[in-house]
Specification:
6 helices, Ubiquitin-like_domsf, 5-stranded mixed β-sheet, alpha+beta, globular, 16% strand, 5 strands, SNRNP25_ubiquitin, 47% helix, Ubiquitin-like domain-containing protein, SNRNP25, 172 residues, Ubiquitin-like (UB roll)
Length: 172
């Protein structure tokens, strides 16, 4: 009895699959055809480019990552905030972190921002972040953000506030 029920289930599944293929206007040979990886990537990138034209996502780059889309959505729902990180050369990096982020979360967000920027521009492949954080520091309103486990709110950092990325002064 089980064999006939199982067979009926398989026949039904095949029929439904064929019906779906016919409804979509796809020929049976095309349904089983595999696309090369490069073509799938191109199709995916085209879809992303169309999605990025949405008013909520329009300020994202064409080669957007899922993480960037999720961050933008979190910003729209008030679950995240943008911290503007100012470098000594005048460049401002808009970094997105969650509302209750710590200094360590901000540092990791800066790392992701810079790594994505370098990937897109074809820049430096590897950065020693241990060296960076030993040589540079973050400060807000003249106060150094020294404690990695302290929340940004404890330092008084809110949405769209500016944090300075500056070289540490050597102690004598």
């Amino acid at each position: 009895m089980k064999e006939s029920e199982e067979m009926d289930g398989n026949v039904k599944a095949e029929y439904e699959t064929e019906l779906n293929i016919q409804e979509c206007g796809i020929k049976e040979e095309d349904a089983e055809e595999e696309l090369p990886h490069a073509e799938v990537i191109d199709i995916f990138q085209e879809g992303l480019a169309m999605m990025v034209q949405d008013p909520l996502l329009c300020d994202l780059p064409i080669q957007v990552t899922l993480e960037e889309i999720n961050s933008q959505i979190a910003l729209e729902f008030g679950q995240a905030m943008t911290v503007r990180v100012c470098k000594a050369d005048g460049e401002v990096m808009p970094v997105v972190v969650i509302q209750n982020a710590t200094v360590l979360d901000l540092k990791r967000a800066i790392q992701r921002y810079i790594q994505l920027k370098h990937q897109r521009e074809g820049g430096i492949q590897h950065i020693s972040w241990k060296y960076v954080w030993n040589t540079y520091q973050l400060s807000f309103s003249g106060e150094k953000l020294e404690s990695d486990d302290k929340s940004l709110r404890e330092y008084g950092i809110k949405n769209r506030d500016e944090v300075v990325f500056m070289k540490k002064l050597k102690k004598k």
